[in-house]
Amino acid sequence: MIDYVDVIYGLAWGDEGKGKIANVLAPKYDLVCRWNGGPNAGHTVYQNGKRYKTHLVPSGIFSGKRCIIGPGCVINPNKFFEEIRYLRGEGFDTSLVKISPAAHIITEAHIDYDKRHLGHLGTTGQGIAPCYSDKMIRGGKRAVDVFESQWLWDGELHGKVLCEGAQSVWLDIDHGDYPYVTSSTTMPYGACSLGFSPRKINRLIGVAKIYDTKSGTDPLFPTSLWDDQELDEVIQAGGEFGTTTGRKRLVNWLNLDKLIQSVKLSGCTELIINKCDVLEKVGIFKVYHKGSLHNFKDLSEMKVFIIGAIGDAQMEGSDIHDITFSSHQEAL
Ligand code: IMP
Ligand code: MG
Fold first, then answer.
1. CB atoms closer than 10 angstroms to residue 257
2. Quick one: DSSP state of residue 210?
3. What pLDDT, on a 0 to 100 scale, did the predictor assign at position 329?
């Protein structure tokens, strides 16, 4: 029986540091699950002072938890086994990883199509959109067709469950800036595709960042911003280069209106604003709100402003009862 489900997800365009937060929280749970995406995701976590990078395996692997890759995920078997070998080599118990028989398989043809035809959307080139497309047209291969039974999940969920999102609200297929989105449901309700009722959800932990970034193309991040020297300092100080692609990310000051919108849309109950140490390092503190760019003398002044604006939004109906400002280095 499931006790409850908590969901961690991104409130912006990905790369908010969800993986690090999930890794910190994972020890309190029995299961850690992924519900969407595949090798397009890149999670960087620190465990006992060492840095690990994963793409598909949930962060629960670092604390010895059973890890589920749900039916809404897409899997490239070669990449999956590469990640399994890497994690096993680092001493983690990979027999804890189970895949839903209904998860879809990325083929070479999917990757080829993505690379040839979808580059203008700034995709990660991992075959994501073609694979989901074959799923929808009901012509795709599934995990049950290619994986040995030892890897397959029996569909059981029990105890305290943590669901870990990949990508984020503004990359959601329905809610993002289409077509500059990914092909899955990144909204936290997508977690229910693992096989539980929405009423089981307890905490909705939304992770944001104190400035905005986007990997790949998006007209919301005009290329004119590339010439902005202050923003370039943020990129360098924040290490804003893709985990999966190595590409330099597009960057802008935090759009607080969009953050408030994603908080409301997703029903966020706890907000974590990450990477505050990056702005402190750069020494510039700016936020867009209601059409103007506000400038602050330090981080505390900026925090007060953000808390105030979210407080006002609360009056209009959002569910947040906790805001944490977190640092990239410490992740909480
Ligand atoms: P796709 O998911 O490879 O089709 O890429 C679609 C868009 O989502 C591109 O703009 C990617 O850069 C972006 N994207 C996909 N996965 C991630 C992620 O894990 N973090 C950040 N951006 C992502
Ligand atoms: Mg990432």
1. 15
2. S
3. 64
Note whether 212 and 251 are within 8 A (CB): yes
pLDDT at residue 27, as a whole number: 97
**What single-letter DSSP state applies at residue 155?**
S
Please give the pLDDT value at position 260.
Answer: 95
Per the confidence metrics, is the pTM higher than 0.90? yes
**Sheet order of strands, 270-274 included:** 97-99, 66-69, 31-34, 159-168, 2-10, 201-209, 270-274, 322-325
Q: How far is the CA of 126 from the centre of ligand 2 (A)?
A: 14
Using CA positions, which residue lies closest to atom 11 of ligand 1? Answer: 123
Please tell me the predicted confidence (pLDDT) of residue 332: 46
Which residues lie closer than 8 Å to 275 by C-beta, 6 or more apart? 16, 17, 209, 210, 211, 238, 326, 327, 328
Query: To test the ligand 1 pocket, which listed residue (20, 44, 171, 172) has its Cβ within 8 A of the most ligand atoms?
Result: 171
Residues of the chain with pLDDT under 50: 331-332
The per-residue pLDDT for 313 is 81
Strand 50-54 and strand 43-47: the pairing is antiparallel
Predicted pLDDT of residue 59? 94
**What's the rounded Cα separation, in Å, for the pair 188 and 185?**
8
How many whole angstroms from 316 Cα to the centroid of ligand 2? 31
Which residue is closest in CA terms to ligand 1's atom 9? Answer: 123
Q: Give the separation between CA 312 and CA 326, rounded to whole angstroms.
A: 22
Measured CA to CA, the distance from residue 3 to residue 253 in angstroms comes to: 40
Give the residue from 37, 44, 34 showing the smallest Cα distance to 66.
Answer: 34
